[in-house]
Amino acid sequence: MDNENDSNKNITYGSTSYQPKYERPAPSAKGNTGGGKIALLLVVCILFSSLCGGAAGYYMAYLSKSSEGEENPKEILYQAVIRELSVGDDEGDRALGVSGVSSLVADSVVEITTESISTSSFMRQYVTQGAGSGVIITESGLIVTNYHVISGATSITVTLHNGEEYPATVRGYDELNDVAVIAIEKTGLTPAILGNSAELSVGEQIVIIGNPLGELGGSVSTGIISALARDVYVEDTPMTLLQTDAAVNPGNSGGGMFNLYGELVGIVNAKSQGDDIDNIGFAIPIDSLKTVIEQLITYGYVQGRPYMGISMVDIDNAFAAIQYRVGELGVYILKVEEDSNANKAGVKSGDMIKKFNGNAISSSDEITALLTDMKAGDEVTLTLSRSSRLIDVSFVLEELIPKDIVR
């Protein structure tokens, strides 16, 4: 796995100053009403997988059930089984080629259009449109896309390969992994088949299908796997991604990366940006998302994620210190949720966090990284600076449950 010396690279959805700069291609901005220009850079590629000639076959890998054990309803994810070769068979003979894959997965790829409300500097509100891609994962209308494609949307519209349009609702999302599941009221769809990203090799050819620029739905690009496990930061969130040299453009986000057997092996969510940078795109490995997708279908969120109930701001320069009226640098607690365990334990707005479970910290990113190794129900101890003295406060981490899921 090629992941050496990459932990300091920062990928963003939009335009940041890191050089070289990587971004999650944003949904292509399609226009607005009421004045103002908003550049939405959301790159959407397509999720998918499907049956390929000569493969050993596929099976129903997942049956979603509610927490009470009842079907919710029967939501089936199709996954590829391990391909077994007979004597004399050649694995290469079973590959479909780019045109074969494109034909096979066309009906599993959709276009996504969103509308959201923005406010100008003059406090005028206007509607901004964005576009991305998605992949059908069940016959009953569930679709996988990137979280950043649908984040903040007041309305979502899905356009199928045959041109039919349907309104969509959000079934669940996971901001940490940049993935969301949306639903349309349509049955008899052609679902993608989830492959195994662990079986990929550097140099292996892949196919990306999506809706670049928000206007070119069903566009196909191809390239190779450039690296298998590239550790990068996407908008300050650490992720381990597949790297490819295939073309990725605004509007491809939420789409998928397929192998030559027509199996979905990744969800494209980031790209390089800059006048002197070409052919550097990234995708989330599908193996890391299978369990996440199942939980989003069943619960609407990923269970067990820890939540402190605290809003933090990094005080990393003198100007910020003056702005927040503090005399030291570090992590400043901006707000404590009223009903949170942190508030009940005595954590207050205005405190500075100096240690997290005994670990000295200087930024909120360090706290986020430490939280990834914890789960809801674990106890945490914060060493706080308050009125020029240090105090320790302990409380139990709660479960992070999004409150805006439409079920």
Could you explain the architecture of this structure?
This protein is mainly beta. It has 2 domains: 1-303, Thrombin, subunit H (Beta Barrel), CATH 2.40.10.120; 306-399, Roll (Pdz3 Domain), CATH 2.30.42.10. 11% of the residues lie in helices and 40% in strands. It is built from 7 helices and 26 strands. The chain has helices at residues 91-94, 97-105, 147-150, 290-299, 318-323, 341-345, 364-371, and strands at residues 10-12, 21-23, 31-33, 58-65, 71-80, 109-119, 125-136, 142-145, 155-159, 165-174, 179-183, 193-194, 205-210, 219-234, 237-244, 256-258, 264-273, 281-285, 306-307, 310-315, 330-336, 352-356, 359-360, 379-386, 389-396, 398-399. The strands form 5 sheets. Strands 1, 2, 13, 14, 15, 16, 17 and 18 form an 8-stranded mixed β-sheet that branches. It has a 6-stranded antiparallel β-barrel with strand order 6-7-8-11-10-9. Strands 20, 21, 22, 23, 24 and 25 form a 6-stranded antiparallel β-sheet that branches. Strand 10 (165-174) and strand 11 (179-183) form a beta hairpin. The protein starts with 9 loop residues before the first strand and ends in an 8-residue tail after the last strand. Residues 1-22 and 30-73 have low confidence and may be disordered.
